[in-house]
Structures are given as C-alpha cells and as structure tokens.
Design brief:
This protein has 498 residues and is an alpha/beta fold. It is built from 14 helices and 14 strands.
Amino acid sequence: MADWHSTVAPPALARLLRTARLPEPVGHRPAYRELAGQIRVLVADGRLPVGSRLPAERELAVTLALSRTTVAAAYDTLRSQGYLHSRRGSGSWTALPEGSSPPGDALQPVPPHEQGRLLDLGVASLPALQPFLGEAAARAVEQLPAYATGHGHYPTGVPVLREALARRFTERGLPTTPDQILVTTGAMGALHLLHRALVGRGDRVAVEAPSYGHTLRSLQLAGARLVPVPHARPGGPERLPCWDLPQWRRVLQEAAPRVAYVIPDFHNPTGALIAEEQRRELLASARNAGTVVLVDETMAELGWGTAEAPRPMAGLDRAAQVVTVGSASKLFWGGLRVGWLRATPALVRRLATERVFSDVGTPVLDQLIVASLVGERLEEVRAVQLARLRASAAAVSAALRERLPRWRFADPVGGLTLWVDTDGLSGTALAEAGDRAGVRIAAGSRFGVDGAFEAFIRIPLTVPAAAAGEAVERLATAAAVARSGRWPSAGGAHPLAI
C-alpha cells in the first residue's frame, strides 16, 4: 500500500503563505526566492507537515497570481535545498534536508559532574517534594514485608495502587474500576505495550504536530507510519493552539489510521488545553473511522492557571475506543518510574499476559510509594507543585519578553513547558551553542515528524523562579552565538565556556 499524503489545496496553501514570516530582507528578493522561503518556513515550523503534497505548479500560479515560471523556480529551489521531493507524474511532497535531525542528547539529564556548569532546559520534570516523598517511601517500606512473602510479580499492578488510581479517575468524572487499570513501568512502558498490541508494522498513526518526541520515536521504531496533523492557531502565535478539527476529520476519513495519539491536557510541548467540545468532536470522528484514540494524560494533574479542567476524554464518548495513559513522574518525581493505562478489562488482561515476556511487572516498592502519594497526599503535593510551576512560569515568561522580545510564545495555563518560536533561528543551532553558553536546550525538531519545527525550542517550567533570569540570559547568549557563529565579545572565550 502506498504511503498516504495530505494534499494541500491551492487556496489553503495561499492562506498559509500569508502567515509565513521571513527574516528581514536585505535588498530586493526575487519572487521565486520569496515563495521558496515562505514554503521553507512553513515546513520548518510544522504548519506544512513533512510529506504534504503541494499543488501543481500551474494551479498554484493561478491562485497566487504569479507566473508558472516563478512557481517552477521556487519548487526547483526547494528541491535543491532538500525541502521538496518530486516524482514525474505523481507530484511534489514537502521534505526536510538530510542531516537536519536534532542533537541526540538534547533530552538527556545533565551528568553530575556538569551540573555546576550547565542549566538543564532539556528535561521537563520536577524535583521531588520533601517530606512527602520520604514519608511515602517510609510507609511503603513498612508495608513491603506483607508482599515479600510471595514471588513479587504483579503483571497488572499491586491491588492497592490499582484501587487508588481507579478512585482518582472516578473523582475526575470518569467512573473506573480496578480491573480497568494496568500499572506499568512509567508512561513510556504503557505506550510501548499499547504500540505492540495496537499498531502493526506499516499501520498509520495520526499524531499532533508537534507532539511528545519520545512517543513519536517509539511509534517509528514500532514500524508505524505517522500522519502528522498540525495544530490550529486561530489567535496567532501568542495564543494557545487548538485542534484543527477539519484537518482531523479529513485525516481520519481518508488515511483511516489505526490509532490517533493525542495529548489534550496541557500538551507537551505547546501547553495547549483542548476544550471539551473539541474532544467530543474528535472522538465522534474517530468512532466513525474505527480509530483507537490513545490519550496521553501525563500532564492532566498540572493545571496551575485554570480553575477547572475538562473531563477526561474517555468519559465523553463511551462508545469510542479510548485508551488513557498516565504517570506519577510529572506530579511526584521523575525517579518514580510508575505509569498506568486505563482500558477495557479485556484489553488490560491481554496486555498483562503479553507484558510477562518483557518486564513482568513494575517494582513493588515503587508502586507502594505511589499508592501512598495518590491515596493520601495527592492534593497536598499538587498544591505545592502547582504554586511552584505558577511562579516559574511567570518568571520565565517575563524574562523572555524582556531579554528576547522577538521570540514568541503563548502563556499556558498548566503543564511543564513553553513552546517558543525563535524568530527563524535554528533550534538545532541553538542547542549546539547552548552547551558552550552553559544551558542545555531541547530543539523543536525533537517534537516533530522527520525533524520539523526547526525554528522552535521547548523551555521547561521546572526552572526555579529565582533562576529564570540566569537561564534566559544564557539562552540569549546562545542565540547570539547561533546567529553570528561567534561569541559576542571580542576578548576570547565566553566566561561560561569552561
């Protein structure tokens, strides 16, 4: 079966081109170079997904009131730069140049010996709160002897944690029983299980563009063919994005993906919070297409700027096929490698049977710690963590607007991340310069299919408010280096380049 490509109609491309900002022109720019540059910007920041089929030269020329020669020259320029692939008789598709992939270590923790030199803006994860973690761990150790008399294998999870998670789903408006819960080794453990069970090699999976980088890579390793669906930004880049429902309906109908992977709650990386009505509409379209909706709720408890979050997607359309994934890592601590999924009892039993051939089960002690936190201390932990995030978000946003006023972003109302448009500056170049400037940066291309979103970076809101100014100052230094290729001062190495 041939790959499915979204065909961009000439009027739709014309509308997108009007939003594509180019760097300030130097002198006169020929029309074909202007057009090529606009299309290149659209591909690089993800508004025109990689693999989109562009209109025929003649059709686009008529729509844009340009000569066909101008459009042909623009397409030739894009092909020479690696942003367009063409096949005679079949058309032209957007692409990314060879070698545009981001640094491989951008999202890895800073090693201990580097922690004094590098500020880590690569990982969006909060440190643990004391005394909550220590007290929960002590309680878990007290409970452990009762479990140590057996073999310690719990493929579905220890009952006390499954019961606590089921209660929490029910409190959030989604009635749930423990037999609908499977405890996993982190949210990625849940996603790996689901990918193996639901996605065959060559199956199409619809994903948001951008989306969580680790999941995109996991799906690609599973052999899935990803169909990116760009977010809509009806209020411009300073407003949080939402789902482009016409595009979702078209993808679900025409591409017939096996699975749709979405992050509706404080999206990673954009911070978007999807309204309940949009959730209902997407679920209805997925139900009609026979598509399983895989909902990532790892950020759902992190609404620090909104009074009330929408109900879980699985509670909005009981007839739809919805599987929900969650995690203890974002709210409690990344070192607690405990995740879970909520699904039908039949799917839970199937996955529990299949997981014994991989990790058998999640460590019992970690499960008992999380059970104590979820069942007894959740609201206390949430209150402290949300206050911490609220302060950090305010400090980081203010510092960015003062020090890097041309960078653009929307202020989120929850989650752990800012999604920042770097005014055309390469996120990969920023990440490379950041190591010398003493800051680790996650390039935007980590969160796109085939390296899209090159002109973006993700900034975690886990920087303490007091350190926000220093973090942004180092970002500004990295930006100056990435633009010029040299340190701004003439007197040797930058003081942070140790």
